[in-house]
Prior knowledge:
Blueprint lengths: L4 E4 L3 H12 L4 E4 L4 H6 L5 E2 L1 H9 L4 H6 L1 E3 L1 E6 L2 E6 H5 L3 E3 L2 H14 L3 E3 L3 E6 L7 E5 L5 E5 L2 E4 L6 H5 L6 E16 L9 E3 L6 E7 L2 E8 L10 H12 L13 E15 L2 E2 L2 E3 L5 E2 L7 H22 L3 H28 L5 H16 L1 H12 L6
Parallel strand pairs: 1-2, 1-12, 2-8, 5-14, 12-19
Antiparallel strand pairs: 3-7, 4-7, 5-6, 9-10, 10-11, 13-16, 13-17, 14-15, 15-16, 17-20, 18-19
Helix pairs in contact: 1-6, 1-9, 9-10, 11-12
Amino acid sequence: MRTEVAIIGAGPAGLLLSHLLADQGIDSILIETRSQQYVLSRIRAGILEHSTVELLDAIGLGTRLHAEGQEHRGIYLQWPQERHHIDFVDLVGRSVWVYGQTEVTKDLVSARETAGQAMFYEVSDTALHDVDTEAPYVTFTDSSGAAVRIDAAVIVGCDGSFGPSRAAMPESVRQTWERTYPYSWLGVLVDVAPSTDELIYAWHPDGFAMHSMRSPKVSRLYLQVPNGTDVGTWSDDRIWDALAERLGHGQDGWSLERGPITDKSVLPMRSYVQTPMRHGRLFLAGDAAHIVPPTGAKGLNLAVADVALLAPALAALLRKGDERLADSYSEDALRRVWRCTHFSWWMTTMLHTSADPFDAQLQLSQLRWVASSEAGAMGLAENYAGLPIGF
Length: 391
């Protein structure tokens, strides 16, 4: 088989890239290890930056988002006996939307299927070849067991941190930076209406807690737990008691409403960046190149920003033979990657507790400054609501 762009990974980054390329008249094929059902059901990020929403609107994929998503003006920062609202719209004129990655993926899959996009699911043994030439190709075994080869002008790796694309970058050119945090998140999905109108980020001596949501009827909540935590050791009652304590149940008349927990999982926290994001005819986007802890709600939005830069670069390369945007893609994308990596680190280290009482006082001082200083609040708002694509 032959195509212009072979895209490895049919998550939101790969699907969005194929959609943007199709708008430029560029053919692509999507190759995915998982089943379509698995991809559509993954529980992932739920916050969309202002720029992400603008892009989805511009390409005609914002209809259901605006009908079913929830626009938020800001977030709450909390520590014992205090809760403060940071209003992004007042501070920087930009809001965020609660609309799960699962829903974004559904919208993209529907659009690509309607357009007749070629997609291979449940493949195995995916390998990239000759990426440093002008004739790269991908081989894999399809779901029926047949061997497949796809020749392409360009290969794009959107296959996450464990896919083959990251490893296909030669060791002689790649560099990596990594930070593993000494705590994880215990996340629960709950069939109960959210107890808050906007997200609560709570610092507490027992550990960080967060109240988020997926819809008007489904809440998503998190607790800081030690690395290596066995989710089986946390009963539903233990989870609710910890959430009530850390989120301030009863404080100023506020109540945390309980409901049936439908999903529990433990999420390790780490930062990872691999450079460059382009070598020869191989380009990386999304989690294939970088991972951030979820505290700053940047993972999905970074992937969107990557492919928003990459699509016009590939269009110029393949349609006009103009290599300038392709040559600068890695540097351009990494400028935003490192900004978001720093912001995610800053939010994470400000809100997650350690055994060091000195650190605790520094964190509380930082929180008070952000909540009381317009300059501090504006910095948080600008980064959380999202810098313009191309920053």
